[in-house]
Amino acid sequence: MSPKQPSIEKLQRDLAQADAIAQQKSNFLATMSHEIRTPMQSVYGLLELIEQEKPDSNILSMVQTAKNSASGLLEILDDILEFAKMDADQMTLDSFEVPVRTLIYGINEAMAVKVQGKSVDIKDDISKDVPFVVIGDPKRLRQILMNLMSNALKFTHEGIVTIKVSTECKVLSPEKNKTCLRFEVVDTGIGMEEEVCKTLFQPFTQEDNSTSRKYGGTGLGLSICKKLVSIMGGEIGVISKKGKGSNFWFEIPTEEVSNSNPQVEMPSLDGLSILSVEDHPQGAKEIMRSLQSMGALVENCTHYAEGLELAMRRPFDVAIIDQGLPDGLGLDLIRELMQLRPFMGYIMYTVREDAGLQHTLQSLGVTYLTKPASRLGLGEAVQDAASKTKQMSIEGNTKMLVAEDTPSVRDILKRQLDKLGVDADFVENGKQAWDALQSDEYGILLTDLHMPEMDGYELIKKIRNKDEQIDKHFPVISLTADVQMGQRQVFMSHGFDECLLKPVSLGQFQRLLIRWGLLAEDRKEIKTESKTNSSSPLNENKKASIDLISIEKQMGQMDDQVIEMLGMFADMTEPLVNDIETASLANNIGTLKEKAHSLKGAARSACANILGNYAEELQDAAEVGKNDSELIAKIRNEFERVKEEIKNM
Length: 649
Fold this sequence. Notes:
This protein has 23 helices and 19 strands. The protein has 649 residues and is of the alpha/beta class. It is 51% helix and 16% strand. The strands form 4 sheets. Strands 1, 2, 3, 4, 5, 6 and 7 form a 7-stranded mixed sheet that branches. The termini are far apart. The protein has 5 domains: 8-87, Helix Hairpins; 96-256, Histidine kinase-like ATPase, C-terminal domain (Heat Shock Protein 90); 273-367, 3-Layer(aba) Sandwich (Rossmann fold), CATH 3.40.50; 400-515, Rossmann fold (3-Layer(aba) Sandwich); 537-648, Four Helix Bundle (Hemerythrin (Met), subunit A). The longest helix has 48 residues, at 5-52. Helix 9 (304-313) packs parallel to helix 10 (330-340) and helix 22 packs antiparallel against helix 23 (629-648).
């Protein structure tokens, strides 16, 4: 054996160990940020609900302060998740058109709110030879500049903060047929010592402890900027002097877009009617010009009241709405329009980078788009919003068939459909559904994905194969507790027309049925406002087993029928928990996985969310061959808690 061989083997082992540690760290950061983000989203959502109740001014002020804090924490968690992705080399860049000047103007507009009450001017300085449009990732480029601007404004108490853009790169050498852009954020703030500048782009680093205490922040922003610039093939740095301000710069290679030779094929928006509510003249012009070039008919207005009046006068396919309007908030306008026009698609197009706002819009099914999007990005967002909300048509019979193997979930769905006045039949698995569909009695199918004998995936394949033979499309909606499956590109790729995530709220169900023509559009909206007594012990328990607010959203109100339904859920679920314990004792992993999945869907449909989460953990463990007895004990204890709460009702 060569004397050098052991050292090579040791080097390989050390390298593998370092990779494993790096992966473990990234996984930990990603998991931690995700696990904290989930309850924080609930906190933000509840604060938002309290705000909508229009409390007195003192309570409203406290709620808004708490909401802003929750939004700030969500942004920090997003930074941690972003850092973990880049650390694990999982970050990929988009390649779109970037309107450079619109990008800079939009960032300065967004940053203007940060200088209110300060003697600071925000300016831009863009060289004349900078191309109007280049190829790049507008979202990531905006992220870098927003981060640098936020830092500059944080440490500048008076004076000027300027974004400069030029083609005079001092570090990168321009490649053939490429353009090099240099971005600089120059401030007149407190500045830094040279020693600090050398370590500033390392993770979790700030100038010193006193800076961290006085100004806050995680010290992750600049590290993320450095990684993003590196992925873009560029360089980033800082020039600063204590008491004399700072100049944060980065240079990236890019490519100019010629107007006569577009780089990408734009989506066709022929015939789509668009309502644009945008008060910034340049922004309104960009929206109209971009969408009209793709064939859309665009009508623009500048105020909340005007947008509402236009939508009342006639329907549009899609509404693109800015958040900051002269006479109100875009979010409030979207909520009002959704009641008026349930078939319209909605896009929030804003300069605001707000994690809380983004979460709210996602929960409403509204696209969140930050300015400036590329023409392609804007066009695709409009196309997607229009396709998701257009009215569908069912040929022939309109009776619904529901395939769901869990008895308690079937019971909840039946009660919801009865409340809405929709006729439906129920079957217990995919095979029964396939047999029932041969009668041509049904016009639409709502199906669970994981069922015995034949699951939803095999069922949709058989239905789509038949569709090809008879040249007819049969609408199928998937019903699942899997959040990943709820993404449009995922369920569409399997052949489903839509996806409902468990637990299904009554409002969601109603909008879907209206969209498919099973309910009249002018049907009165079912209210799901909470009537629960605020002094109830269940509300005081922060870890209540049954989420009463979600139950009311799902069933419309808390009444005797709902309590009876919950009692039936407990009775129907007891055998399922017993089966899980039996499968565990027999070490039957296959049965354990199947029963855990059924319990997950049943628990979440009954809004027993803690029980549903435990069931999901057990399913995940079983999928990798693990029989987790401690988790099963938790499931039993939580189920007993659920039964006790239902009994107390």
